[in-house]
Automatic annotation (TrEMBL):
Annotated Low complexity bias: 284-294
Oligomeric and partner information: Interacts with RAF1. The interaction promotes RAF1 activity.
Organism of origin: Melanocharis versteri (Fan-tailed berrypecker)
CC cofactor: a divalent metal cation
Protein name: Phosphodiesterase
PANTHER family the UniProt entry points to: CYCLIC NUCLEOTIDE PHOSPHODIESTERASE
Limits of the PAS domain: 134-204
Length: 748
């Protein structure tokens, strides 16, 4: 909220008023100091802009002092508008600072100058004040905590202690602040403890242990203490947080000083706990009672199970094979036995890797992309996303309109309907914000706003919120990848066979799913998150962790703010249908189900269509329509579409293919580096930046995941240009590999 204090309406006040409307800020105007003060005490504005150009109307500095005397102004940003003087020396701003102003604004009635000032304030001082306001809540929690908390600087100077700490140690309020730990006789062996603590915290680990502390009066008390280093500016330790709890006689824990280690195999904890467990339950006593009665009950239960009418399709298949075996010759019966053995496995669609001599690049890619990780081997936790602050519509500046796109960006998007469109040219033109611009153009081409019954401004806000929640620091999984997948999705939707198959709601779902499919991606694989025990992995039970997060967060970001809620005008049932399709498509990008999706597509769509063509029914539109339009097959087609769009990099023109290969390799290298730093299992060891052969890794990925999938998709959608690029890129990588080169490009 903004309060404008101008005695008279002029171009400057009108400029700020217009800027508030454009930025979406609520605005009040006051003409006198008294009305300004009353309005502020009623509304508690975040920004106050006071006119200091005409002292004959009111004393701006006196008004600012009056506002600052109120408790409500503690976190308010107050701006002083001063006259522009070109004929005299610059005056000091110290009087303005002394009066309580946050900063000054030299008069400039340009609307965009006013708008830019407000946006800078929002993302600068106002955002900082929001954080300071939140600190009040944190300090309230600390003040009320029953645990004794002490915060020191990197030099071990006490900066904060809570009342529980002062009470426990016998000090008065404020006695400990700004004291060095060596000045406070809390522990006779403090120096020794600091050495022990430092040996842990220097490598970024917390320290926990027991020691006897001395109160101010000299009494000795035993404490259970945890000390945590806090990383701050420059990646260095800037504070230590110490959490202490008194040990009483009823709950003594014998424990030597410990350093919580990263690797379980080097863990040297020597904790000894009193055994609190009750006697173990005797399993035999629960199973041996009434053995005769139990046998009879089991036979009765099995009979009921066999008489059940609920039968899964796989059960029917197994029963048919069992029946066929009874009247089959021995060789056939044995072959059917082998078939049954395969059918009873859980991974029916995943090809089995060969012997240990299998290509290590393929093995690592399969391990890294098609599993949900190993069990945690350490005490480390990789925290992300669940506690991160996500960008929302209200915290972002308004994006440009489709009609106001700068010429360079318009030129970069000229051929966006062609497969050879260069996403990296658009990335450069938009300063790494290609998703908003490309999204506006593609969504307009497909009439998305008309289908959703939402305004273009709502769509613009939505695209910007989604793009803001992609991590620009990721080398691969950023908004450029999202824009690339959106482009590929739009290209596939324009193919004739796909247009015959899908309804308008499917097209809308596909474009939205492509846009959000990797939102808030941390640049690490599912395996990494599961091994690290991340909060996301725990939340989603180590199953499709990232894909579940992308889908859930996309809807959270969309629906939490009406400014960007593109679904708000949809009819309920239509929205539920659309939501279900979007979620299904985003989850389909998870690689553990890769072969299941591809094989189902081949068996349910490619083969029936090929059979119709072989039988001379190519012109039989009704038969083809039956294959294409069944609900089950449309689901398979949508999954295949987004899967191909998601990993289409090897089918792009060579330079784009090379750039994407470099980016994904760098992301995997960074993951391997972090796994080694944290002592986690290295899920893709070949992606070591010092030894990895990028051509080999690309060939393995293409051979294992790409060729069969794009052969199937090409047979369905007719994509000769993609297959030509794919063949050329395979030859390129083979050429580098044949020369034993491990890099992206041959030397000049």
């Amino acid at each position: 909220q903004v309060l404008l204090v101008f005695a008279e309406e002029d171009e400057q006040s009108n400029g700020f008023r217009w800027a508030c409307d454009k930025a979406g800020f609520r605005c009040n105007i006051a003409r006198t100091p008294q009305s300004a003060l009353e309005c502020f005490l009623d509304k508690h504005h975040d920004i106050i802009i006071i006119d200091h150009r005409h002292s004959r109307y009111f004393d701006a500095e006196a008004l600012c002092r009056s506002i600052r005397t109120t408790k409500a102004s503690e976190n308010t940003v107050i701006i002083c508008v001063v006259q522009r003087h070109t004929d005299r020396e610059e005056s000091s701003i110290l009087p303005l600072i002394s009066a309580g102003f946050t900063r000054r604004y030299i008069e400039n009635s340009s609307r965009m100058a006013c708008y830019n000032e407000l946006i800078q304030l929002e993302f600068g001082q106002v955002q900082a004040q929001f954080k300071l306001r939140a600190c009040n809540s944190l300090f309230t929690a600390l003040e009320k905590s029953q645990e004794a908390i002490e915060i020191t600087s990197e030099d071990h100077v006490i900066q904060y202690v809570n009342p529980a700490f002062e009470t426990m140690m016998g000090y008065q309020i404020g006695e400990l602040i700004e004291k060095e730990l060596t000045e406070v006789p809390i522990n006779e062996k403090k120096a020794d403890f600091l050495d022990t603590i430092n040996s842990c915290i220097k490598i970024g680990k917390e320290w926990q242990g027991m020691y006897y502390a001395k109160k101010k009066n000299g009494d000795s008390i035993q404490q259970n203490v945890k000390i945590l280093p806090v990383i701050g500016q420059g990646g260095k330790i800037r504070h230590y947080v110490s959490i202490s709890r008194l040990c009483n006689d009823n709950n003594k824990v014998e424990k030597t000083c410990e350093c919580i280690q990263a690797e379980s195999q080097t863990d040297t904890q020597t904790c000894r706990h009193k055994d609190m467990r009750k006697g173990s339950l005797d399993v035999r006593s629960t199973t041996s009672r009434g053995s005769d009665g139990s046998s009879q009950r089991r036979r009765s239960s099995m009979a009921r199970v066999h008489s059940m009418t609920i039968e899964a399709p796989i059960t029917k298949v197994i029963n048919i094979i069992n029946a066929a075996q009874e009247s089959s010759p021995m060789p056939v019966a044995e072959a059917l036995d082998r078939a049954l053995e395969i059918l009873r496995t859980t991974e029916l669609y995943s090809p089995q890797l060969g012997t240990k001599d299998e290509d290590p690049h393929t093995s690592d890619l399969v391990g890294g992309l098609m599993t949900d990780g190993l069990r945690r081997l350490s005490g480390n936790e990789y925290i992300l996303s669940a506690k991160q602050t996500h960008q929302v519509a209200g915290s972002l500046s308004s994006p440009v309109s489709l009609n106001d796109i700068p010429p360079r960006i318009t030129q970069a998007m000229e051929n966006e309907e062609q497969w050879d469109f260069d996403i990296f040219e658009l990335e450069a033109a938009t300063h790494k914000r290609p998703l908003v611009y490309l999204g506006l153009k593609i969504f307009a081409r497909f009439g998305i706003c008309e289908f959703l019954n939402c305004s273009e401004s709502t769509l613009r806000s939505w695209l910007q919120v989604i793009e803001a929640n992609y991590h620009s620091s990721n080398s691969y999984h950023n908004s450029t990848h999202s824009a690339d997948v959106l482009h590929a999705t739009a290209y596939f939707l324009s193919k004739e066979r796909v247009k015959q198959t899908l309804d308008p709601i499917d097209e809308v779902a596909a474009l939205i799913a492509a846009t959000v499919h990797d939102v808030d991606h941390p640049g690490r694989t599912n395996s990494f998150l599961c091994n690290a025990g991340s909060e996301l992995a725990i939340l989603y039970n180590d199953t499709a962790v990232l894909e579940s997060h992308h889908a859930a967060l996309a809807f959270q970001l969309t629906t939490r703010d009406g400014k960007c809620n593109i679904f708000k005008n949809m009819e309920r049932n239509e929205y539920r249908t659309l939501r279900q399709v979007i979620i299904d498509m985003v989850l389909a990008t998870e690689m553990t189900k890769h072969f299941e999706h591809v094989n189902k597509f081949v068996n349910s769509i490619n083969k029936p269509l090929a059979a119709l063509e072989e039988n001379g029914n190519n012109g039989d539109g009704e038969s083809i329509k039956t294959v294409l339009r069944s609900p089950e097959n449309r689901i398979l087609i949508k999954r295949m579409l987004i899967k191909c769009a998601d990993i289409s990099n090897p089918c792009r023109p060579r330079e784009q293919c090379i750039e994407w290969a470099g980016r994904i390799s760098e992301e995997y290298f960074a993951q391997t580096d972090e796994e080694r730093r944290q002592g986690l299992p290295v899920v893709m060891p070949v992606f070591d930046r010092n030894t990895c052969s990028i051509p080999k890794s690309q060939l393995s990925f293409i051979d294992y995941f790409i060729i069969d999938m794009f052969d199937a998709w090409d047979a369905f959608a007719d994509l000769p240009n993609l297959m030509e690029h794919l063949n050329n890129n395979i030859k390129y990588w083979k050429g580098l590999d044949g020369r034993n080169l491990r890099v992206l490009r041959p030397p000049p």
